[in-house]
């Protein structure tokens, strides 16, 4: 997971999938320390944490070694002048392509419609395939959703949650 915050999602998905290894990446030192400590306290052996920024992922993650990437409620950087900072901007998508295995996938969830639309355009322009697109995740038939802290906050006030799956062609 890129931008894991307090690590709630990463901890839960690691618990649900004890036969897989997970890496949670966060740029904020004070947040990731707490997230890692919670994982240690909960005894989750298949979860590791890395403090870093997404633009350097391919410096410490081997090429073609990641099955899937989770982008949960990334900062939408609402002003168009900040588009290059969005985690679904084409430069990031090229980094992800290098570390993803063939047919690797990216799962994105957000509450921000404009960011979601931007992401759809960027994935398409970067030649990723798209599937399982939901404009209202909580009112869809999608099963197995892990509700994040932000997701609960936004859905509790009636905001739709947007979700997509992108894959390397």
Protein architecture, described:
The chain is of the alpha/beta class and 169 residues long. It folds into two domains: 1-52, no CATH class; 74-168, Vaccinia Virus protein VP39 (Rossmann fold, 3-Layer(aba) Sandwich). It contains six helices and six strands; from the N terminus they run αβαβαβαβαβαβ. The strands form two sheets. A four-stranded mixed β-sheet has the order 3-4-6-5. The protein has a two-stranded parallel ribbon with strand order 1-2. The model has no long low-confidence stretch (mean pLDDT 97).
Question: Class of the largest domain, according to the CATH hierarchy?
Answer: Alpha Beta
Question: What is the number of E strands?
Answer: 6
> Residue-averaged pLDDT, rounded?
97
Report the end-to-end length measured between terminal Cα atoms.
21 Å
CATH superfamily annotation of the largest domain? Vaccinia Virus protein VP39
Q: Please state the second-level CATH architecture of the largest domain.
A: 3-Layer(aba) Sandwich
Number of helices: 6
Which range does the strand content fall in? 15-25%
Q: Report the sheet with the most strands, covering strand number, pairing sense and barrel closure.
A: 4 strands, mixed
Q: Helix content range of the residues, please?
A: 25-40%
């Amino acid at each position: 997971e890129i931008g894991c915050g307090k690590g709630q999602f990463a901890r839960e998905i690691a618990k649900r999938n004890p036969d897989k290894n997970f890496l949670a990446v966060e740029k904020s030192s004070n947040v990731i320390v707490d997230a890692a400590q919670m994982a240690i306290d909960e005894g989750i052996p298949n979860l590791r944490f890395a403090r870093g920024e997404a633009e350097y992922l391919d410096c410490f993650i081997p090429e073609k070694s990641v099955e899937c990437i989770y982008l949960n409620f990334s900062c939408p950087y609402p002003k168009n002048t900040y588009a290059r900072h969005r985690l679904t901007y084409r430069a990031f998508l090229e980094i992800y392509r290098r570390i993803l295995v063939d047919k690797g996938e990216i799962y994105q969830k957000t509450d921000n419609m404009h960011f979601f639309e931007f992401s759809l355009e960027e994935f398409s322009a970067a030649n990723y395939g798209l599937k399982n697109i939901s404009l209202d995740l909580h009112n869809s038939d999608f099963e197995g959703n892990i509700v994040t802290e932000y997701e609960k906050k936004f859905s509790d006030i009636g905001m739709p949650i947007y979700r997509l799956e992108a894959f390397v062609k």
